[in-house]
Write a structure and sequence with these properties.
This protein is of the alpha+beta class and about 200 residues long. The protein contains four helices and ten strands; from the N terminus they run αβαβββββββαβαβ.
Length: about 200
């Protein structure tokens, strides 16, 4: 049911898809490495009220021997920086990951240039609240105009209102808690990443 709903929503996104590359063909290694989360669209309760004080987040994606994704995040919380690790299992069909036991019903890439940015869709369910998000992942602290355009296109196309979208504040304190050591080590483009150039969208 969730997959049918997302498919219907994707069909409404107003941009030609004839030349799009289906992301089910991509190697998950192309998402590995460090990312800054620079913009978010969310239907979570309270997001519209809190969005103006939300700061840039850090994400590090690695691959387990079983080809599952391990996602380390660092974001601001009430008591400072909160870090969390989630392992996501690959679904049987398509380039989609999940871990329902942790509230992650769907995690997929909507669009990417295979190198500098990725647009991530996540369906979440915590307690009695179910919601989805679209996030702009960027390899650098500043997003390109192309990345911002694609983020806006997907957010609007999936029905997010303007008050449900935000470019995050440029406070990198928590992001750098997990990204700085990797940046210093020179692994900013991702472990095992094989950039293909160009751009892919569902």
């Amino acid at each position: 049911m969730r997959g049918l709903l997302l498919t219907a929503l994707l069909a409404l996104v107003p941009e030609p898809r004839a030349q799009a590359v289906w992301l089910g063909r991509l190697d998950p290694k192309q998402l590995l490495g460090h990312w800054y989360v620079l913009a978010v669209a969310s239907r979570e309760r309270g997001f519209a009220v809190e969005k103006d004080v939300k700061n840039v987040e850090g994400v590090v994606v690695t691959l387990t021997p079983e080809n599952n994704l391990k996602v380390l995040t660092s974001r601001h919380g009430l008591e400072g920086c909160n870090q969390n690790i989630v392992q996501l299992l690959r679904q049987n069909s398509g380039w989609v990951f999940e871990n329902p036991s942790l509230g992650v019903l769907e995690y997929r890439v909507l669009g990417t240039d295979f190198k500098d940015y990725a647009i991530i869709f996540t369906q979440l369910e915590f307690g009695d609240e179910a919601f989805n998000t679209v996030e702009l992942y960027s390899r650098t602290e500043m997003a390109s105009q192309e990345a911002l355009r694609l983020f806006t296109k997907w957010s609007k196309g999936l029905g997010f209102l303007s008050q449900q979208q935000a470019q995050l504040q440029k406070d990198l304190t928590c992001a750098r808690k997990i990204l700085q050591p990797r940046l210093a080590g020179g692994s900013c483009s991702g472990e095992g990443q094989t950039p293909s150039g160009g751009q892919a969208e569902i």
